[in-house]
Specification:
Blueprint lengths: L2 H13 L2 H8 L7 H17 L7 H16 L7 H17 L4 H11 L14 H6 L23
Keywords: rRNA processing
Family: Belongs to the TSR2 family.
Protein name: Pre-rRNA-processing protein TSR2 homolog
Length: about 150
């Protein structure tokens, strides 16, 4: 597995997670909210790269939930934690098999899709967001993707 591509996939996934982007933009985690998002990326990469036992999606959901509560003072109950965790698990499994299609889709949605949130008739309510799949999410927030990882996964 290409660890730099996988870490890019984690960063792209988090950059499209509306709850995290709101927390960063509004500095719910304080003035260092952007740095805290970088720490979350590092924790996620570590979760996938250092585990020697089969990965459990419940553990990943707990990691995301606890990080949002402790780092950003944000209790997420819109179902997005489960969507993000599922997307990350699928992406990891694909990357282990040498398939980077889900990351390519994230790249395209990040750079090739226009901002839809400001158009009339496009709903950004929590209920509407909850119904969308991770791969089709488009949010108006730009976040710097920090090059945080250069690790090897065995």
């Amino acid at each position: 597995m290409n660890s730099s591509t996988f870490s890019e996939g984690i960063a792209l996934t988090l950059s499209q997670w509306s709850a995290l982007q709101l927390a960063i933009q509004n500095q719910w985690g304080g003035a260092d909210s952007l740095q805290k998002s970088g720490q979350l990326m590092a924790e996620l990469f570590s979760f996938f790269s250092s585990s020697r036992v089969p990965l459990c999606i419940d553990d990943l959901e707990n990691l995301l939930y606890e990080n949002m509560v402790l780092s950003f003072n944000t209790d997420i109950e819109d179902g997005s934690i489960e969507e993000v965790a599922e997307g990350l698990m699928i992406m990891y499994e694909e990357c282990v098999q040498g398939n980077y299609e889900s990351i390519e889709k994230l790249r395209k949605s990040r750079y090739g899709v226009k901002n839809l949130s400001n158009r009339p008739g496009i709903s950004t309510s929590a209920a509407a967001i909850r119904q969308r799949r991770l791969r089709s999410l488009v949010f108006p927030f730009d976040v710097m993707i920090l090059p945080l990882f250069i690790y090897c996964i065995e």
